[in-house]
Amino acid sequence: MARFAAAQGDAGREWEYHSVYGARLLDVMVPKLGVPAGVALDAGSPDGMLFPPVAGVVPDSAVVDLGGER
User: What mean pLDDT do residues 36-41 have?
Assistant: First the structure.
């Protein structure tokens, strides 16, 4: 997380984050946030990935409505 903040040029502020592992992250924690949220995996590394809050990634209760677009 520190490397990500530094790469964004924003290492001086406080960053809120949650550490959760495995499927529990997508299946349980994302819906509990109560706001649309995706997941950044290894955000500060060259192999980082983003998982958006869309159908097939997070449970239906946490999906952002894209108006029929995918």
Answer: 82
Distance CA(45)–CA(47), nearest Å, equals 5
| Cα 62 to Cα 6: distance, rounded to the nearest angstrom | 30
**Cα–Cα distance, 35 to 61 (Å, whole number):** 11
Which amino acid appears at position 21 of this protein? Y
What is the Cα–Cα distance from 39 to 52, expressed in whole angstroms? Answer: 6
- C-alpha distances in Å from residue 24, one per residue of 32, 42, 45, 64, 68: 11, 17, 22, 19, 27
DSSP one-letter code for 60: G
Predicted TM-score of the model (pTM): 0.52
